[in-house]
Amino acid sequence: MKSFPTLETARLRLRELSTADIPEIVGLLADPAIAEMTLNIPYPYRTSDAVYWLNTAYQGFANHEQYVFGVEQRATGLFVGGIGLTLLSRFDRAEAGYWMGRPFWGQGFATEALQALLHFGFDDLKLHKIIATHLTKNPASGRVMQKAGMRWEAELHQHVKRDGQYFDLVQYQLLREEYPPLPTPAAPAP
């Protein structure tokens, strides 16, 4: 893909990150609860962290290794979180990751965004498999994966380390043939 894609759902737009998003990103990720439930989000979260994230996202897209989307509400343009795929092209596989700002928890935005990302991965990128993991202390993230159609695959014991402590991860997966294509719009009546 030469230009960064935009994905739309009933309520959300998944689009390329912009430097204009930095204040919203920093504001949402200043919440320690988000860092506590994720592996790669530091706390405290600073402007320099957001700049690093955007630069990594731009470089990942340029190298055909990542698609990182900002998630916004279509109706308001309000930035609500981030979601992306890290590609392992050799295996036609990717890992999905996401976060939503705490004011947007429990509203189905993560599930809606993940479903759009899965469709993009299978329909546009022609991936064979998409995985996602969550810390065992964050079962809500696992429920998002289940609602999006992913299935439990494994529990990885003491698989990651953060702040000097080892954590277990739960891994979910979905294969292309298990995920239905997006519905085709009905033809207009004659």
Sequence-ordered SSE layout with sheet pairings:
Elements (H helix, E strand, L loop, with lengths): L6 E2 L3 E5 L5 H8 L2 H6 L9 H16 L3 E8 L5 E10 L4 E8 L8 H16 L4 E7 L3 H9 L3 E12 L2 E11 L15
Parallel strand pairs: 5-6
Antiparallel strand pairs: 1-2, 2-3, 3-4, 4-5, 6-8, 7-8
Helix pairs in contact: 1-3
What keywords describe this structure?
190 residues; alpha+beta; Aminopeptidase; eight-stranded mixed β-sheet; 5 helices; 33% strand; globular
Give the low-confidence spans: none
Instruction: Please give the order of strands in the largest beta sheet.
Output: 1-2-3-4-5-6-8-7
- Would you identify the CATH H-level superfamily of the domain at 7-131? Gcn5-related N-acetyltransferase (GNAT)
> Percent helix among the residues?
25-40%
CATH architecture level-2 label of the domain at 7-131:
3-Layer(aba) Sandwich
The portion of residues forming beta strands comes to 25-35%
Mean pLDDT: 94
Number of helices: 5
The CATH class label of the domain at 7-131 is Alpha Beta
Major sheet attributes: 8 strands, mixed
Number of strands: 8
CATH fold-type name of the domain at 7-131: Aminopeptidase
